[in-house]
Amino acid sequence: MRKSLVRFLGVPAWLALLVGAGASLRAAYDGPVPAPTDAFGGAGAYAVRTDTFPNADWPGHDITVVHPVDAPGRRPTWFFAHGFGGGDPANYSEFLQHLASHGSVAVYVPYPASEGGQPDEVYAILNRGFVAAADRFSDLIDTSRVGFAGHSYGGGAVPGLALRAVRERGWGANGLALFILAPWYSFSLTDADLASFPANTQAVVEVYEDDTMNDHRMAIDLFTHFNIPAENKDFLMLRSDRIDGYNYAANHRVPTGAARPGSASAFNALDAWGVLRIAQALTASAFQGDAGGRSVALGHGSPEQVSMGVSPGGRALRPMTESSHPVPLYPMDRYNFGFDRPANPRVNAALPASDNRPRLINLSARARSEPGDGVLIVGALIAGSRPKSILVRAAGPALKTYGVGGSMTDPQLALFRGTALDLTVDDWSQSPDTEVLAAATHDAHAFPFPDGSKDAAVLASFVPGALTAHAQVASGLPGVALLEFYDTEVDGTACLSNLSARASVGTGDDVLIAGFITAGGGAMRILVRAIGPGLKPFGVGGVLDDPQLEIYRGSERIAVNDNWSSDPAGAASVLDATASVGAFALPAGSADSALVLSLPAGAYTAQVRGRDGTTGVALVEVYALPQ
Q1: Range of the domain at 401
Q2: What is the pLDDT of residue 528?
Q3: How many domains does the structure of the chain reveal?
């Protein structure tokens, strides 16, 4: 599912991935979550007028100036650099009009996305266009209060364009703002250049969770090397979600807002809350000293900043993720344009390192799932202080390929936070972006689902805490199902720390199997428990009286336990480990099984079966222990 690197600025076929060509001037607002109505997200008080004048560098593609009607005096101004191939200002019309309705001027300079185009030529075209607009509308544009915004190719161009305006023309003396969206490579910029922005600069760098076009490392590089006061810069990530059957896809096309299926994302709450509202709040903060604007644009994770609205049914859209010290979260080969490509002039720039501590990157359980109380339920715990991007899958039909008999024909995946239903997915093709889902599956080394299969999957972010997945019967027959959680990030700051699965343990293919994969530097300590009799105090009936626990690496059995306290040394380790993770204690002398292991990175399975072929309900648990 990897896209090949296109020739440097030379293949128009991928332009539609950056912007939606030919968008209408104003896209209809879409989705169940309403747009914000506060001072920054709601429409401004001014009527908006659009003027154009000839572009000397690209005849037939005028420079556009969008401005408020009857606003007094010279106005703060945003200079916008579009994505490669996005010469039509309609592609970003919502952005331009929103700022103008609040009293700012927005200048849009198109540049040709021609075969063999070079950054120095494109940057010069943008610069000349910005200067021409400032000269032509000198009675309207206040060059002492300027912002530079850009998306994709234009996002990477923003720092260089802004520095040139500051150094050569003294712009921004009374306020300088940068709003950088999903940037591509940045040219003609040294670390010293990025460190030379004036202290009055305020900057927001924004990326999108499911962007597979531009490596987030480009954005992290810029943010890290901006040597401006920490309180004047912030890093945001918009997150994908699914509410009431509507997909909010936080991909590379977010800010284009053109409601054209297959061409660009719809104009919805991601744009309104995550782009337009942040842009106007940054405007108010940088040019007016507005404290409310600062708390939204530069809130460093404040609720006012990261909230993304609530549907009429009460389901909140997943909030943005903020970081003052961003690190790479996804592997570099996830992206069409990775940071390590030779085309990146800053390929050798130092980046913050991801946390490579030992961690669980996959948890799964396989068992028979039936309607009602017999449904397969798997719980996972996310540890850390920030949301975690997780691939969750319920496999049924796909198991047939691997020789599993009696598999569920049509599983529905239901995810719960506490007792509240978070989202449901039936067929995996319902996910917000199937291409991103397939890429995440590839990165996680998970087996692919067949096209059009009835297996279920979703890629989403979840805040720290307990997450529960149910493999429900959507249609057809019950049967064996596999529930899986995959950590799709390379950073271990937030991680999966626990799996628990309760199911009926049978024989043959109907034994209870839990899988887990460890990664990172060094061995990892794990507590694994198979509980039957220990469930009786919790009112569970029909328990497996004598569960046996076996641990495998591949086909090799590496550990086994029957009764957890039969070995005094092993029992002491289990007691200490149980206390360290806050798990409930096992009765002394019970027939439950448990092991504490130190395992190198790799894939493992824990199999729970009844001694002498007995059956019943059992609970299998896998805990990551303090390292």
Answers
A1: 359-624
A2: 97
A3: 2
